[in-house]
Specification:
The strands form seven sheets. Strands 16, 17, 18, 19, 20, 22 and 23 form a seven-stranded antiparallel sheet that branches. Strands 7, 10, 11, 13, 14 and 15 form a six-stranded mixed sheet that branches. A three-stranded parallel sheet has the order 1-2-5, with no helix packed on it. It is of the alpha+beta class. It folds into four domains: 32 residues; 96 residues, no CATH class; 86 residues, Immunoglobulins (Immunoglobulin-like, Sandwich); 109 residues, no CATH class. Keywords: Signal.
Amino acid sequence: MSARFLKRNRKLGAMAATIAAMTVTIVSFQNCAPPANCGSSSSGCSTDSSSTSGSGSTGSSAKSPYQNNSNLVIGGGGSGGTSTSGSGSSGTIVVGGGGSSGSGSSTGGSTSSGGGTGTIVVGGGGATSGNALSIAKQPQSLSVYEKADFNFEVSVTGGKYPYTYQWYKDGSPVTSGLGTYAFYMDNADRWAKEGVYSVTVKDATGSAVTSQSVRLGIIEPTTGCAAGSYFTYTNGNYDQAYGYFPQYFDGPRGKFIIHSSYDTMNLLYQFAGYAGLKSWSFPALAHLGKATLSCEETIPRIQSPTNCYAYTGIVTFECHNNKLKMISNTCVRGAYECGGGGR
């Protein structure tokens, strides 16, 4: 009986040893697998949606170390995360591939942003998914001399090509052909071009972004005034109706008479009677030099003596870049003189 008991104990002991060995094997195998929230990189685990080793396919922690909205992902982080060893993808099999919104460099591939959608990606960066449209280079404020060229530029990044542009001045669209490019170029030949500019850029999807507002300032050169004929209109409404030089005769910088050289196509002097010109001859003047006219003269838009009245005094002008700006007017209307020497 004693021999039989010992024999049975030997069998139980062998069985126990076998069970123990299997237990050790299972535990060892389990220890080989990464934890449930480990990324694909060898740098460690992460419970955040963005880490140095990638993240889950929807921007949150991966549910398992291998699955990421695909059948099999090896070495790729999930979309929405950022990984130094590559981001995950929606491809069927990805080995070291870039993710749909993450960024990073995969083994054998270059740094990329965007998701690879191919069936098999090995060591390749993900395809670009497109960043938000934004201004990469803003236009800058400028100050230029009168009659000089000026240029505003803008550049954008992200969005979907092609882009369209619309420039604005003081809140209104620039309607010239140059108002629909990435740059706006013009000549400061009129003070009316001084103001605040901006540009709105749209991409192919209709997304839009507007640049900062910038100012164009126009500086008067310190050049003198040429000798010769200076003019204005006897009909003060003519330039308003037809658009000739309104910013010079009566603009934001004051009241002026201008040299005939401004009539570059000789349109006004050629039809002086029709245009209603009144002109005077002055000697050459240095910058800020002075010239005067008697109030006995009719000077439209500055003072307008009427028949039957006598005027005394003078109008004093100052030279500003081939234009004469009124700086004082001492004209006084005298007595009514009709029938007795009216003017």
